[in-house]
C-alpha cells in the first residue's frame, strides 16, 4: 500500500488527531510514520498506536534557522522512507510538511486545517498567520477542513481554492469512539464515585467540566469568572478543569489566583488515559472558546450524554445543535453563568440535551465514518501510483 507521514509539532495532539485511526490504517496495509518534536512519550504512543517516528524539532513560533534545518531533515526523511502521502497538522508543522512534500515531489500532500490562528491575532502577526495558511494551501494537493464553517471562512478569507477543500463526513479529523471509549454504559457507578473521591468532590456535587489546554483562547478566564458568580448562589456546584497549563497564551495571574484560592475548583493537570471517566462525573461541559478547529471535547462529552455549552464561533458552532444537543453562549461570564444556571435548575432538560447529543454524535461523527473518508483519499493515491 502507501507509506504515509504525519507531521505535528507536539505529541499532545497525537491521541486527539489520530489515536486508533493509525492502527486502523496500518491494518489496511499502510505504513504509518510521524515526525514530531522530541518527547519522552513518543515511544509509548508509537507502541500503542502502531506507528514509526522520527524526532525533529518543530517550534510553534517562526525561527528562520531552526525552521530551515527542520525542513531539510523532513525532506531527508521523506526520501529515505519513500513517502507517498504526507499530512501536515497545525499551522507551523503543516506549513513545513507542505513545503517538504512539495520540494520532494510527494504525490499526495494533505494539509489539515484544524483552526484559524489569526482569528485571535492582530497587526503583523495576523498577516503572517494568514500568509502562512495561504502558502500551505497552495503547496498542498488537498486541504481537509475539520468543520463546515472552516470551509466557509477559508473561502471568505481567500485561504484556499474551493476545489481543493474537503470535509471528512460531517466534520472532525478523527471522529469519536462512541461504541466503546465514549459510551456511558461502559463507565460503572463505582468508577464515577472513586474518581469524585479522588478529587474530593462531594458525592452529590453538581459538576461543571472543561477538558483541554488551560489557555485564554479557550475561554478559561470567562469560565472561572462565571463560576465565581454561581458560587455565590449554589453551594453544591463545583468546577473541574481537566488539562495542562501552557506558557503560550497563558492565563493571567488573577485567574490563576482565583483557581488556586477557590476550594471548589479542581485542577487535574494533563490526563493521558481514561478521559471518559472525567466526562462521566460532569453534569455539563463548558467550552467558551474564542476560536476552535472543531471542538473534539464537545463531541466526546456529547457521546457521554453530557450537555454542552459553547460559543457560536468557528468550529465549535458545528459541534452542537443549539437547544437540541447543547446551548450557545456569547462567551462572557454573565452569559456562561446564565446558561449553566438554566441547566442546573432544569435537570430534566439537561438530561434531554445529553441524550440527543449522543445520538447526534453517533449519526454524524462516529470514528469509522471519518476514517473511511481518509481511507478513500489514501486509496486514490495508491491507485494513481499503480497506474504509473
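^ Assign residues to that structure.
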Amino acid at each position: 500500500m502507501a507509506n504515509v507521514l504525519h507531521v505535528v509539532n507536539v505529541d499532545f495532539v497525537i491521541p486527539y488527531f489520530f489515536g486508533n485511526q493509525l492502527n486502523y490504517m496500518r491494518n489496511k496495509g499502510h505504513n504509518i510514520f510521524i515526525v514530531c518534536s522530541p518527547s519522552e512519550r513518543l515511544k509509548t504512543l508509537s507502541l500503542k498506536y502502531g506507528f514509526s517516528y522520527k524526532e525533529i524539532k518543530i517550534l510553534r513560533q517562526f525561527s528562520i534557522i531552526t525552521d530551515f534545518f527542520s525542513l531539510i531533515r523532513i525532506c531527508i526523511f521523506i526520501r529515505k522512507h519513500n513517502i507517498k502521502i504526507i499530512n501536515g497538522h497545525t499551522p507551523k508543522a503543516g506549513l513545513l510538511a507542505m513545503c517538504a512534500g512539495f520540494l520532494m515531489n510527494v504525490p499526495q500532500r494533505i494539509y489539515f486545517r484544524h483552526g484559524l490562528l489569526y482569528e485571535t491575532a492582530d497587526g503583523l502577526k495576523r498577516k503572517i498567520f494568514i500568509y502562512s495558511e495561504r502558502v500551505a494551501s497552495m503547496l498542498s494537493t488537498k486541504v481537509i477542513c475539520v468543520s463546515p464553517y472552516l470551509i466557509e471562512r477559508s473561502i471568505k478569507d481567500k485561504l484556499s481554492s474551493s476545489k481543493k477543500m474537503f470535509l471528512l463526513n460531517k466534520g472532525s479529523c478523527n471522529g469519536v469512539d462512541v461504541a466503546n471509549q465514549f459510551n456511558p454504559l461502559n463507565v460503572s457507578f463505582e468508577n464515577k464515585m472513586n474518581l469524585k473521591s479522588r478529587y474530593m468532590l462531594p458525592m452529590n456535587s453538581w459538576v461543571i467540566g472543561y477538558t483541554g489546554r488551560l489557555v485564554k483562547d479557550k475561554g478559561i478566564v470567562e469560565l472561572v469568572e462565571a463560576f465565581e458568580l454561581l458560587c455565590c448562589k449554589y453551594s453544591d456546584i463545583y468546577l473541574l478543569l481537566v488539562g495542562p497549563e501552557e506558557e503560550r497564551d497563558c492565563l493571567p495571574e488573577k485567574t490563576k489566583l482565583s483557581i488556586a484560592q477557590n476550594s471548589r475548583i479542581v485542577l487535574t493537570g494533563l490526563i493521558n488515559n481514561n478521559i471518559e471517566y472525567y466526562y462521566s462525573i460532569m453534569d455539563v461541559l463548558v467550552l467558551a472558546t474564542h476560536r476552535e478547529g472543531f471542538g473534539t471535547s464537545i463531541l466526546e462529552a456529547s457521546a457521554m450524554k453530557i450537555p454542552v455549552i459553547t460559543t457560536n464561533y468557528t468550529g465549535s458552532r458545528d459541534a452542537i445543535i443549539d437547544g437540541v444537543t447543547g446551548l450557545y453562549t456569547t462567551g462572557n461570564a454573565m452569559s456562561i453563568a446564565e446558561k449553566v444556571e438554566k441547566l442546573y435548575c432544569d435537570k430534566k432538560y439537561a438530561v434531554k440535551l445529553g441524550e440527543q447529543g449522543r445520538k447526534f454524535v453517533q449519526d454524524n461523527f462516529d470514528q469509522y465514518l471519518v476514517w473511511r473518508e481518509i481511507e478513500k483519499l489514501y486509496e486514490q493515491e495508491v491507485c494513481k501510483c499503480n497506474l504509473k
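DSSP finds 15 helices and 13 strands in the chain.
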